[in-house]
Amino acid sequence: MLAQFLAKEESIIRKNVLKMGHETSKAIEKAISCYKTLNIPLADEIIINDAVINELENRVESECIKVIARQQPVAHDLRELLADMNIAKELERIADYAVSIAKIVRKLPPDKREIEPDIIEMAKKCILMLNEVMINYAEKDAQKASSVARLDDEIDDMEDMLNHKMFKIIEEVPEKAIFCTYQLWIIHQLERMGDRVTNIAESVVFITTGKVVNFD
């Protein structure tokens, strides 16, 4: 009976973590969409909706703590609950980066807008990484999670390339310096997303194998 109750509680927690992943992915998609179109109302929507993700993170943490305190789970269940809390925290931070992009978009000077396609591609890689790792989390697939983590190298390479490109534009066309500087901030937010998804992949491995890994 106790095992059934614990399994039910863990199922509820996982559903909330997966819902967080879905909402966070949508936030990134909207953030890059408002960057492409300078859609200020959409940027405002991202900022407002962040409260939903924050509430989910609080709910996951609260539920995990209650289960740990009341049920005193065995090692495997405890490991999963601790990982759930960590994944929820990483998702909340990723969503914060999407909010940061939305806030940057609201500051972009419309008269000097030249959208950088590679920033959009970088964002797509982040979304792909996040969606894949959440599938791995749902399926408890450590091997595939490890493969997803390696995609972060591609995001890091794109960051290096785009930083070089932005600085070159600033050097050659000084009047574009403000816009390029804002784009550098967006690039940095995306790079941080990749790092956070990598952390989630590490947690998936921890859930399934009990091993603490570092994919940096």
Number of strands: 0
- CATH class value: Mainly Alpha
Low-confidence stretches: none
Estimate the mean pLDDT confidence: 92
- Helical content, roughly? over 70%
Give the end-to-end Cα distance, rounded to a whole number of Å: 41 Å
CATH homologous superfamily heading: Phosphate transport system protein phou homolog 2, domain 2
Q: How many whole angstroms does the radius of gyration measure?
A: 19 Å
Gross morphology is elongated
Output the structural class: mainly alpha
Q: What CATH architecture label applies?
A: Up-down Bundle
CATH topology: Methane Monooxygenase Hydroxylase, Chain G, domain 1
Strand and helix order:
HHHHHHH
Strand content: under 5%
Give the tally of structural domains: 1
Number of distinct helices: 7
Sheet with the most strands, sense and barrel status: none
Any descriptors?
elongated, 7 helices, mainly alpha, Methane Monooxygenase Hydroxylase, Chain G, domain 1, single chain, 216 residues, 0% strand
